[in-house]
Amino acid sequence: MKDTDIKRLLYTHLLCIFSIILSIFIPSLFLENFSVLETHLTWLCICSVFVTAINLILYLVVKPNTPSKRSSLSYKVTRFLKCCIYFLLSCFFFHIIFVLYGAPLIELVLETFSFAVILSTFTTVPCLCLLGPNIKAWLRVFSRNGVTSIWENSLQITTISSFLGTWFGAFPIPLDWERPWQVWPISCTLGATLGYVAGLIISPLWIYWNRKQLTYKNN
Amino acid sequence: MQKISVLLFLIWVSFLFYMGIALFTSGFLLTRVELTNHSSCQELPGPGTLPWGSQGGPRACWMASRFSRLVLVLIDALRFDFARPQHTQVPGDPPVSLPFLGRLGTLQKLLETQPHHARLYQSKADPPTTTMQRLKALTTGSLPTFVDAGNNFASYAIVEDNLIKQLAKEGRRVVFMGDDTWKDLFPGAFSQASFFPSFNVRDLHTVDNGILEHLYPTMDSGEWDVLIAHFLGVDHCGHKHGPHHPEMAKKLSQMDQVIQEIVKRLENDTLLVVIGDHGMTMNGDHGGDSELEISAALFLYSPTALFPGTPPQEPEVIPQINLVPTLALLLGLPIPFGNIGEVIAELFSEVKDSQPRSSALAQASALHLNAQQVSRFLHTYSAAAQDLHVKELHQLQNIFSKASGDYQRLLQSPQGDAAALQTVIAELRQFLQGVRAMCIESWARFSLVRMAGGAALLATACFLCLLASQWATSQGSYFYTLLLPMAWGLAGAIVCAGLLAATGLTLDLVVLGALVAVGSLLPFLWKAWAGWRSRTPLAALLPRPGPVLSLLLIRFAAFFSDSFVVAEARATPFLLGSLILLLVAQLHWEGKLLPPKLLAMPRLGSAAPAGPPRHNSSHALGLGVGLLLCIRLAGLFHRCPEETPACSSSPWLSPLASMVGGRAKNLWYGACVGSLVVLLAAVRLWLHRYGNLKSPEPSVLFVRWGLPLMVLGTAAYWALASGADEAPPRLRALVAGASVMLPRAVAGLAASGLVLLLWRPVAVLVKAVAGTPRTRTVLTPFSGPPTSQADLDYVVPQIYRHMQEEFRGRLERSRSQCPMTVAAYQLGSVYSVAVVTALTILAFPLLLLHAERVSLVFLLLFLQSFLLLHLLAAGMSVTTPGPFTVPWQAVSAWALMASQTFYSTGHQPVFPAIHWHAAFVGFPEGHGSCTWLPALLVGANTFASHLLFAVGCPLLLLWPFLCESQGSRKRRQPAGTEADSRVKPQEEEEPLMEMRLRDAPHHFNAALLQLGLKYLFVLGIQILACALAASILRRHLMVWKVFAPKFIFEAVGFIVSSVGLLLGIALVMRVDGAVSSWFKRLVLSQQR
Ligand SMILES: [Zn+2]
Ligand SMILES: [Zn+2]
């Protein structure tokens, strides 16, 4: 039972990584002059859309959490709308945090915001898919002994590693190497992406290695 | 007794750090005193007549000028082997083809075709081989060190006598093109100049192409006497690609082209000098003293014959600064006053004359002038500074007087033989070379042993801090563990030093201090080692690496990158913000952030944190965001380092007087005074909140009346300073007098406030206690007055509890009429009140030294530290009865905030960014000959944040106890919950707050010791990182621009911080002592 779960987790994560790789290569078939560094914003949008789409699809296909009892259309619609609002709010929240951390306030607003969008895609979207628009559940997952399934555990790991990647991505900015990727926010977005990918890879492995110690109480 | 030993131990640790810093500095930062004397044309350097009599032309000075014009081509980093001629292949040697070899074909051709006109030398540069120091040397003829004491740090302009200055004085037209370092060194000295930015070492062509654009037209125009072209391409190519890159060949070929073009345009009265200021290593770097770095090419050429003989097979090796006196005499200028170079005698021989005697006489006269000048310089220098060897100096003076006498005698006898002349020349040269050697010995040599020793001492001191901070709380009898080895070592070291001194060995004070430090460390290390070998494993004592320590490690590593040092003003707030978010996240992770209600899920797995969270800390998130906001706002007051041209400094750092708009000025003035008032009101409100404002003690009275006076004085001073120019003429004298008196008055008030605080530090309401009738007697098992410390330790909490009950009883009896009930809280905050009062009193005079608008930053500083303390307190739990600990994150956040405030108050760790105007606050006319007072004022301005945060350090320990009152009060609000019903009766009583610390004096002292050690550790690894960076990267391009100034600032900052820390801890101990005696008096009065 548990091993099959971990396998499913691994496959879904591989699909996510695959979608990110696709977002790098597919657009160059359709768009001229497309490259991750030069047309960075375009790539950010495409990557965000890809990752969101694959997350949604996986959520619908795999259904990691127990289906809710209420399944009326209106409930689903309000839930979806709520999710959208939460996503937007998290984008604004991240934007504010970036500005507090030293991002320029007025210049490069679009860049900063798209960075916030991509980080939300890596962190908020999986949360929304897995836990729904339920802040309490989110807070529970991100506290000690709060996880109740391997899905939540992997969510915890990927989110934290995305944040860590973003954080480390800020380090090359002051260096005087004069590389094109040192410009705000490219190194941070790349860091976030790498962190997300690393989290996707690490979490199944980590769960596999610690499967003896991990005991979840299913609600 | 214990308190004294805590302080002693901290002083000893600080002493270790100081000695490490001193030892490192003595090996790394070589110093020299700059003299401002100038040579003049009319005044010969010594007795004697002009050798040329009156026959010198209009351009004759000490000597008749030989060339009226000079072209100086300075090719940066032109190593000697770049210019070395490629002789025909010697059979048997393997053919060498390196990109840089044999590219300067023009030089070779000139040397071969015109052997009497051209000469190539291998010139030896003196370390530090950095461009600015070399340029200084090439114009002053001296040995510049990094800290040329006496120069004004505000600019790089050369104050010493130099060639450019002499040229300008003689009215020669000096045209310059190239590296813009010259603009800083010789502001306004050139008749025509085109400067190009030298900062970007990746750019090989901008400077060179810019020069080439101007060079030939200028030469052709003829409107110049001296033309200087400083090419940077070769140097930048070295930094970017290294010398072994094909690009270097291209660059050198381009330079060859340039020389060829120049030679074509030379006229007969013109001298061409091609010179490299230094060489480069195999990697293309420079700055140090390796053979490749110091060997540079020097090439001389003139269309008229210069040399009597043909060039030697192997070019002669000469010191680089020999060019200075040579050029001065050839151009008919006086030799710069501070020159210690020796003229290149060959150039002063008569070429056409076959008589060896007149040729030798000409050489001797040039050398004699040179020697006279050097002797005059030595005389003046040794009167101004004591860093030259007395014995050697004496010997050299003897050599000189003998040579001079011989020379005079030869001049008198016209038929003196050539052999005697040669001996005089040899003597003069011996003197000049001896002087150079002596100066190099004391000015221009890194001492790697001292640097390594200093760094090792610093590292050991850091390790000691780490270890002892763990021991301080973990071991019972730690005082003996910590103090005994120290005492033994100190005694042993002093005996050693005494023996050394008795045996007559002269010992450097720094080395002696370092020996004492090492000697006192050894027993300690031995103890640690023994402890590690036996029962207590060392690993258990060291703190486990957590996220906070890795953050510290990142900060440590950042000191090794010049980019990060330059960008530290942005990096520190980033790290601080990260630490704050980490704290908030950790709180959440531990489940302390939100009330458990919000987490609907029952906790699983291991048990939830023991007991309900002490603080209702849902406001921690708000605190975190508020802190981030404050940090960001403080970041708006940002001064740019000069290395980043794209950045623009905040206009708010300039004084209000520089503003033009009247309205905006008034608004800003209002904001500044407003921030002062808010600061004052906040402090008073805080004191009121803990009830200490009602106390009749003098220190509290000072807060109530003295602080507003200080605010008034500051505001009035600002008004005068910002509007001084607009004052009507009648009031000028009044305004001037007031702007002298007001800052002094504020400083005097602050000093008296501090004295009052130290005299009566306990801000509690004694009268209210004594005046009320007792309802219950103190439960004390002792019949007499307390005699021992143990008695007191037992009695004091009893009294405290009793007093609280009594106050509560009064509160219930007469809730309406009694405004004194808050006095019950007074004792609970007695320590932090003293510290906060001291901080506020200190802040005002420091604020006065800054520009007006920095007061907003000071307000933010207080707000920020308040928020941070609350956030930290939310994460800490008070463990009664001890041991108390201050976690690492608290100390590192505090240290980070100190350095963040350093930047947001408009400082940068470079000398030109120092706020020199601070020296004139209260002393608008200057200080006369007094130097320590302006240094103190400027230092207080620069290290204000270090001082404030270090003095405030004990708050980190005290604040969680202070927050206890809020916690318990809030907990009682929601009645009827399960948690409330479980509260035991004794928990209902008023919180003990800081009296908990008094309950366990042993733990209190240990906690203070631990706090001090941890803070010293966090600061210590910074200074260690700076020292290591400066020594490892001493070849780096930026070492004198970035790393060395950073080290100096860090070192001084460390000293200021450690002193502040000791003062802060001593203040807390003073309060503790005063509280003890207060209790004693209370007990005595009760027994009467
Ligand atoms: Zn140079
Ligand atoms: Zn260079």
UniProtKB/TrEMBL annotation, chain A:
Superkingdom assignment: Eukaryota
Membrane-crossing segments per the record: 9-29, 41-62, 83-106, 112-132, 153-171, 183-209
UniProt-annotated location(s): Endoplasmic reticulum membrane
Topology class, membrane: Multi-pass membrane protein
One Pfam short name: PIG-F
UniProt keywords, alphabetically: Endoplasmic reticulum, GPI-anchor biosynthesis, Membrane, Transmembrane, Transmembrane helix
Gene Ontology biological process: GPI anchor biosynthetic process
InterPro entries per UniProt: GPI_biosynthesis_protein_Pig-F (IPR009580)
Coiled coil: none
Pathway field: Glycolipid biosynthesis; glycosylphosphatidylinositol-anchor biosynthesis
The protein, known as: Phosphatidylinositol-glycan biosynthesis class F protein isoform X3
Annotated source species: Erinaceus europaeus
Gene behind the chain: PIGF
Automatic annotation (TrEMBL), chain B:
Residues passing through the membrane, by range: 6-30, 448-472, 478-502, 509-526, 667-687, 699-721, 733-759, 829-849, 856-878, 943-962, 1015-1035, 1047-1071
Membrane topology of this protein: Multi-pass membrane protein
Pfam families associated with the record: Phosphodiest
GO term, biological process aspect, one: GPI anchor biosynthetic process
GO molecular function annotations of the record: mannose-ethanolamine phosphotransferase activity
Top-level taxon of the source organism: Eukaryota
Pathway: Glycolipid biosynthesis; glycosylphosphatidylinositol-anchor biosynthesis
Gene3D superfamilies (alphabetical): Alkaline Phosphatase, subunit A
Matching SUPFAM superfamilies: Alkaline phosphatase-like
Keywords per UniProt: Endoplasmic reticulum, Glycoprotein, GPI-anchor biosynthesis, Membrane, Transferase, Transmembrane, Transmembrane helix
Keyword Calcium: no
Protein name, UniProt field: GPI ethanolamine phosphate transferase 3
Protein species of origin: Erinaceus europaeus
Lineage: Eukaryota, Metazoa, Chordata, Craniata, Vertebrata
Gene field: PIGO
